[in-house]
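Could you help me review a protein record that somebody else here produced? Here is the record exactly as it was handed to me:
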Amino acid sequence: MQLSRLFLATVCTCVALGAAADPVQVKYPFANSSNVLKPSAGYTGPTFVLSHDYPASVSQPQMPWRAAIQNQPISVANASAYAEALKAAIGDDMRVLLQDYKSWDAARRGWYNEPWLGSKEGDGTREPIHGMYVGSGELVTSLFTKSGLTKPFTTYVLTYYDRTAANTLQKIWGSSAMQPVVTKESTQYAEGSIIVKAAFTTANATIWPVMKGALSWPLYITTNVTDYPPPPTDPNFSPLRKLTNTYLMQFDIIVKDSVSAPKTGWVFTTLVYDSRIASPDIWKKMVVMGAQWGNDPQANDPSVTNPVLLENWLNPKAPAYASETLGWGERLSGPNDGAMNDIVYPYGETSKAPYSNAKFKYVKNAKNSSCMSCHSSAQWNVAGNTSPSFLLPALGDPLLQASTLNQTADFVSPEPGSELWLKWFQNRKGDEPMDAGSIAADFDMVLTFKSLPAWHNATQVNPNPGALQFDLRGKRVVPLAKSPAAK
């Protein structure tokens, strides 16, 4: 465990917005990666085209998911109907994206991507075939013992914003994306905005039986812990990019809906692949796993492992493997989302700063997150040049160095159920930051933990790759090890 990971991911990547850029270091915010990264022999299909002609205005969209619950607030009783209506509303487009990629034209269909994650130099975050980047660098076998996973896997994700949501990208990035505008007003999404994320795993059915018959996408990637373990420390190491088959595991749909979810303004839904469904239609095989529209702050006792949740619904008919990685108090979190981590935390009477006499407890695969709690940390502190809180409950005290604590933990955490821990499990609307003095990003984690750090790294005089070296769980991305033939 290295606490420096936490600092790099949350502190060292930020810079004042609008700071002067060095023309020598300026790259290309709307690059596809495929401009220079040509997939290896064996792939002759289409490559990723970034959709960035963001609409300057937006009209009120149709919202059939509201009608599905009679325009009432979402609840445990009606969440299934809501989630199914939301899934159906985007089904036609997603079937083309997933099953007929050669016909996929995101711009024509009204779907858009965030900037700065590719480059004309070929060293961007996105791979060139589908525009995907690492979601979780390594998910270990101990997370999926019940479903028979025999090797760890890496996940890759792809995010799209619909036409309504993309108007906010226009307000932030404009037409050039060179000087982002991050204000309380610019970061807010209009009602009915939809953001989707597809997650693919490097584990096939031989390694993980639940992936039998899953949709496969080829990616041109450098990170794959299924086939290559993390390389040893080597100052001369350089990753090898390889054409690799990946498999659709999870699909997230989130929608801005303050009528249905008045406490937070958003409803999060997660779909997972279900091999039990016999259909050639991949969208039918993606089953709703659950929905979350709040953080259930009243469920705050860590001794109650399965509390009654009022703002969370789980589909009892979803495949069993999906429930192996649920979050704290069984809150919604899919297999890709990393809601279980190895943590070490101070506890008892000595659990408060400065921790000089603290006792520490180590917990393997601790449940410490959920969909909404993670996204609620999306914020940007312009004045302080920092994103002050991590994605998951974590301590940023520099006194807590890895050398003095358990070396196998991922990071140092507050005590579960403590006041600081519960900061991640409160109900806040999207214009209310987790930390005073910051700009809330309306639950857009990609903006504050990917796009803005990538902009900073590409345009500032003294860039620091920082968060770009880490996955969305705050763990260092492990590159593909060189094969003997590549040496």
